[in-house]
Amino acid sequence: MTRRPIVFRRVLLAVLGLLVLGVAGLFAIAWRPAIAPIDPPAPGAFAADRIARGEVLAGAGYCATCHTVPGGVRYAGGYAMRTAFGTIHSTNITPDPQTGIGRWSEAAFVRAMRSGVARDGSHLFPAFPFDHFTRITDQDLGDLYAYLMSREPSAAAPKPNTVPFPLNVRALQAGWKLLFLRQGPFTPDRTRDEAWNRGAYLAEGVSHCGACHTPRNAVGAERRDAAYAGALIDGWQAPALTDANPAPLAWTEEALYAYLRSGATAEHGSAVGSMAEVVHGLSKLPDADIRALAVYFADVGRAAARSGDERTVLAGALAASGEGTRQETDRGAGLYLAACAACHYNRAPAPLLARPELALNSALVGDDPTNLIRVVLHGVGTDDGIPGAMMPPFAHLGDAEIASLAAYLRRTRTGRAPWPDLEAKVAEVRRLDTGT
Ligand code: HEC
Ligand code: HEC
Ligand code: HEC
Q1: Which residues line ligand 2 (CB under 6 A)?
Q2: InterPro entries this protein is in (predicted)?
Q3: 288, 320: one domain
Q4: Residue 397's domain is classified under what CATH number?
Q5: CB 379 within 8 A of CB 394
Q6: Domain enclosing residue 156, as ranges
């Protein structure tokens, strides 16, 4: 009888000991030293060519997209990212000494980009895509630093995040990194040519294409076994860029080049939603870099193996384009004729750039109707996709009307199974848009 409490006490002690060890271990893994603050570099401290190269890289990394609130000062942060784990706000990366990175040395900046650790030693959340920025070379990181540190400082205090306890414990990010972060600059594949490697460097590193096009696991890390397999991001569907891409015509090197350079191709469609921001960001990259991205993704998508039946696909799409241009009894057909046909109908021999051919569009052919619904609700602004071209929003149409329109287009222009529960899906997309 008297032994039991002793056993119990021993077990308790062992458990406590393990807990202390665990906490100490986590602390040891998670602890990073602060890097000493510097006096903000004087304006003119950086060579003009470094700043110019940094500006191009900042564009290609969409730093401004995430670090600026709509209508706010560029790079002053505060942009809200809604994640599955709560809202995370981007920080102020202007060189303001108090609220920005004005007192960050280049070493502190490089550490943040390579391993997601702030100057004070705290861990940053992977909503900041350091898992990609870690691939950037020292030289390019130095140029980015030069560019940011020579911006106009802007005082803007960080906004509080809404990540719940215990996920908001920054030290826990060390565990995440241990499991998912492969740190270090890009290593070229010697079996590939220079253009492929340049494309891979930009894609995996600064331009982080996988951050949107690769699905994530339960704790928000990109799934390595499903690179570029397509994912839902910010309420848009980023299609697969592998050979599982739904577009009826393969994304050849030429098509990818035209799309990434100009924002649209007649054989595929326009860059809309968050992809429009990407095309804006890439716009300062030289043609050779866009070509390199096209070379890389033509390979990722196995375009060479997919091409061959282009003439047949095109002829089929153009034949379907006539559907709905005559008066029909179908409700969706009537809507299409009234609201869409005037701008989207194409005639043989080829679709026109300014009249996106819906039968060739991933929005219509993919498994998920989200992008089609969003485009119909919001239209497309003149700055997105084809420069100067726009599509008006149709948010005044009811959920049932948009659903029947989508079902009709899917049925007449693709060989795919009907989308299920369309009306509920339209309501859901509308709800997500208004944030209610
Ligand atoms: C997808 C959105 C996104 C993009 C793109 C992005 N950032 Fe960030 N960044 C964030 C978020 C969110 C944080 C804050 C993370 C946190 O609080 O843990 C952050 C934090 C940082 C920090 C740490 C600053 C601090 O005060 O702790 C630096 C430095 C930084 N970003 C630089 C950049 C640069 C340079 C680029 C472009 C090459 C860039 N970011 C692109 C979202 C982004
Ligand atoms: C006034 C002309 C006009 C009307 C009317 C119109 N569209 Fe569009 N639509 C366009 C243009 C132009 C674009 C490409 C915009 C760009 O790239 O800037 C576009 C783009 C699209 C896209 C996106 C294609 C992509 O590549 O992602 C879809 C989907 C679409 N339209 C469907 C519709 C539907 C459905 C209707 C009817 C409800 C409709 N459109 C009505 C002109 C129109
Ligand atoms: C911020 C998120 C985001 C990033 C980063 C991103 N994309 Fe996208 N991408 C999207 C979304 C959303 C779509 C679908 C909207 C559309 O069709 O315009 C898309 C569409 C595409 C398409 C058209 C696919 C199709 O079948 O219609 C291509 C090609 C593409 N992206 C390539 C890239 C490349 C290359 C990069 C990196 C340089 C990249 N994306 C980075 C979100 C992103």
Answers
A1: 264, 269-270, 272, 339-340, 342-344, 354, 356, 358, 361, 363, 372, 375-376, 380, 384-386, 389-392, 394, 405
A2: Cyt_c-like_dom, Cyt_c-like_dom_sf, Cytochrome_c-type_DH, Membr-bd_ADH_cyt_c
A3: no
A4: 1.10.760.10
A5: yes
A6: 48-179
Cβ of residue 231 lying under 6 Å from some atom of ligand 3? no
Q: How many CA atoms lie within 13 A of 180 on its CB side?
A: 22
Domain count, the chain: 3
Regarding whether 216 and 154 lie in a shared domain, the answer is: no
Query: What spacing in Å lies between the alpha carbon of 282 and ligand 1's midpoint?
Result: 18
Please check whether residue 39 lies inside any domain of the structure.
no
- CB of 66 within 6 A of ligand 1: the answer is yes
Distance CA 228, CA 245 (A): 10
Residue where a domain terminates, one of 305, 329, 346: 305
Task: Determine the distance separating the centroid of ligand 3 and the alpha carbon of 204, expressed in angstroms.
Answer: 14
- For residue 23, the Cα-to-chain-centroid distance in whole angstroms is 35
pLDDT in tens, the chain (436 residues): 455 666 777 777 777 777 887 888 878 889 999 999 999 999 799 999 999 999 999 999 999 999 999 999 999 999 999 888 899 999 999 999 999 999 999 999 999 999 999 999 999 999 999 999 999 999 999 999 999 999 999 999 989 999 999 889 999 999 999 999 999 999 999 999 999 999 999 999 999 999 999 999 999 999 999 999 999 998 999 999 999 999 999 999 999 999 999 999 999 999 999 999 999 999 999 999 999 999 999 999 999 888 678 888 999 999 888 776 665 678 999 999 999 999 999 988 899 999 999 999 999 999 999 999 999 999 999 999 999 999 999 999 999 999 999 999 999 999 999 999 999 999 999 998 775 4
Residue 29 counted as domain residue: no
Let me know whether 243 and 256 are in one domain: yes
For the CA of 405, the nearest atom of ligand 2: 35
Q: Which of 179, 202, 222 is the last residue of a domain?
A: 179
Q: Is the torsion defined by CA of 267, 272, 277, 283 positive or negative?
A: positive
Residue 198 CB less than 6 A away from ligand 3: no
> How many whole angstroms from 128 Cα to the centroid of ligand 1?
5
Q: Are residues 340 and 297 in the same domain?
A: no
Residues 304, 306, 308, CA angle at the centre, nearest 5°?
A: 90
First-to-final CA distance of the chain: 61
